[in-house]
Amino acid sequence: MSVRAVRWSWAAALTAAVVAVWMDLSPIHRYHTSDSLIPVLSSLYHWTPFFWQQNRYGSLIPLLSLPLESPFSNLLFQVGLRLFAIASTFFLLARAVVPRSPRQLSSGCFRWSGFATR
Questions:
Q1: Residues 62 and 51 sit within 8 Å (Cβ to Cβ)
Q2: Can you give the pLDDT of all 118 residues of the chain as single tens digits?
Q3: What's the pLDDT tens digit per position in 67-101?
Q4: CA quadruple 41, 72, 112, 94: dihedral positive or negative?
Q5: Burial of 23 per CB tally in 10 Å (0-12, 13-18, 19+)
Q6: pTM for this one?
Q7: DSSP state letter for 118
Q8: How many CA atoms lie within 13 A of 38 on its CB side?
Q9: Is 29:79 a contact under the CB 8 Å cutoff?
Q10: Is residue 3 part of a domain?
Q11: 48 falls within a domain
């Protein structure tokens, strides 16, 4: 991988992180329900690979947030990780569609802006 590709990859990751933090600190948290708070509670009290006797995996993000003991910081961290995964998919999609182009960052931003304005 060339130095230029590595720089573009880091720029895309930084852009996705900035977008994720921006969305995480927005009023998105007023729409939480009991289902969206289960991962936070499982991370705070007793982490298991399943969501409390349910047969579905998906406890990687609560596992990563185990060191955070405050419920609010745990919630912000988990939602931030999910939003980072969502924001980075646009850049990964741009890399899959245009694999050898140095315009992956601009293509990912273009896809993100088209998604965000709808």
A1: no
A2: 678 777 877 888 888 899 889 988 989 888 888 888 888 888 898 887 776 666 566 688 888 999 999 999 999 999 999 999 988 887 777 777 766 666 655 666 666 566 555 4
A3: 999 999 999 999 999 999 988 887 777 777 766 66
A4: negative
A5: middle
A6: 0.76
A7: -
A8: 12
A9: yes
A10: no
A11: yes
Kindly state whether residue 32 falls inside one of the protein's structural domains: no
Domains in the chain, number: 1
Domain of 46, in residue numbers: 12-24+41-116
Residue 9 to residues 28, 29, 44, 105, Cα–Cα distance (Å): 28, 29, 34, 8
Residue 105 is inside which H or E element, if any? helix 104-116
Residue with tokens 């998919």: 89
